[in-house]
Design goal:
Length: 115
């Protein structure tokens, strides 16, 4: 059974940084993309950053230059480094792994950016 567990969320002041981690368990086979999404209260879940198996990244315009997605295959973990955080970054952040056939989601971790 594939499971994804996020961690690293919390409360941070504007301009601060957080590093989110997503650790996976269970076998995930084939070519897949790792990604982070976020969902703010009353809004839809949007893509924040994605990383293909070939190392190609994709970022939402709102986070370019501030967020960095990376992964450690040996640790079965994907990271999201978030710098220069803004109040509008406040959301629940979800880890996602997408194969050609399936998508797997974590439970989410809350990130709150507030003075």
């Amino acid at each position: 059974q594939v499971q994804l567990v996020e961690s690293g969320g919390g409360l941070v002041q504007p301009g601060g940084s957080l590093r989110l981690s997503c650790t996976t368990s269970g076998g995930i086979f084939g070519i897949y993309t790792m990604a982070w999404y976020r969902q703010a209260p009353g809004k839809q879940r949007d893509l924040v950053a994605a990383l293909t198996s070939g190392g190609i990244t994709n970022y939402a315009d709102s986070v370019k230059g501030r967020f960095t997605i990376s992964r450690d295959n040996a640790k079965n973990t994907v990271y999201l480094q978030m710098n220069s955080l803004k109040p509008e970054d406040t959301a629940v952040y979800y880890c996602n792994i997408r194969t050609g056939r399936n998508s797997y989601w974590g439970q989410g971790t809350q990130v709150t950016v507030s003075s």
